[in-house]
Amino acid sequence: MRVTLLPIDIAWDNPHENISRAEKMMMETPLADLYVLPEMWATGFAVNPFGIAEKEETSVALMWMRQTALEKQVAVCGSLAIQLSEQTYVNRHYFVTHDCVFYYDKRHLFTHGHEDTYFTAGKQAVIAEWKGFRFLLQTCYDLRFPVFSRYGRAGEYDAIIYVANWPQQRQSAWDTLLRARAIENQSYVIGVNRVGVDPMCAYNGGSVIIDPIGRLLSAQSADISIDKLREMRLRFRVLDDRDLIDSISDNNSD
Q1: Among 70, 146, 169, 197, which residue has the least CB neighbours within 10 Å?
Q2: Exposed, middle or buried: residue 184 (CB in 10 Å: 0-12, 13-18, 19+)?
């Protein structure tokens, strides 16, 4: 499967401009199977969503994701600020294919930036399936909570996708933790972080595709292989059967 990262410089509260930037970046690379955008890619990281978040049924950004997936027969993912009701907002990570929409609501809201003041946290891990791959969907601050993404506890998956607005002053944590999540879960990790600036922070990007033993495959596009992943897991298994059973049991009792 070919994966392409789209770490756009997000124009603040301007979905149409950000769609144009995403399309331009897509045209500059060969056709992929999966395109990954950053967190809140249509608006920027709006911890106060009033007047910025879109309703799911009328979201220009989500409509574009659906149309692109259908027309190109690809998958597109990234998160959006979504208004569910007058007082309820979620940071919703969408994984859109030509015939299906998976979504995950960010579990670990960024309390240091008061995201939890306005947004409602999700409760369940979500795995999206596409072309034989199982993708665990995660968003930004989730990266700091390894138990939540632990293989077996979160479910059985082949790759983790982290979409983010991760600021440059904590870039080393982003770089290190992405590699750690790949190694400890024997999983591909796809991390997409925006570049540029918004009203609060500057962002250096650092988007990567990492293989299951922690090696950098690419900062833009790479092929990931389910056969190679399975072979590696069989050859050198990190979790023994007892660990996996205990992890699944803990998850079912939550």
Answers
A1: 169
A2: middle
Position 236 scores a pLDDT of 87
Give the model's confidence band at 242: pLDDT under 50 very low, under 70 low, under 90 confident, else very high: very low
Residue 57 annotated in active site: no
Task: Give ∠ CA 54-114-204 in degrees, rounded to 5.
Answer: 80
The answer to whether the predicted template modeling score (pTM) of the entire model surpasses 0.85 is yes
From 54, 77, 106, 115, active-site residue: 106
Q: Determine the topology of domain 2-253 in CATH.
A: Nitrilase/N-carbamoyl-D-aminoacid amidohydrolase (3.60.110)
Catalytic option among 39, 54, 77, 115? 39
Catalytic residue flag (residue 129) = no
Sequence letter at residue 129: E
Q: How far apart are CA 115 and CA 118, in angstroms?
A: 6
* Catalytic residue (choose from 54, 77, 115, 140): 140
Q: How many CB atoms lie within 10 A of CB 58?
A: 9
Could you report the per-residue pLDDT of 219-230, keeping only the tens digit for each?
999 999 999 999
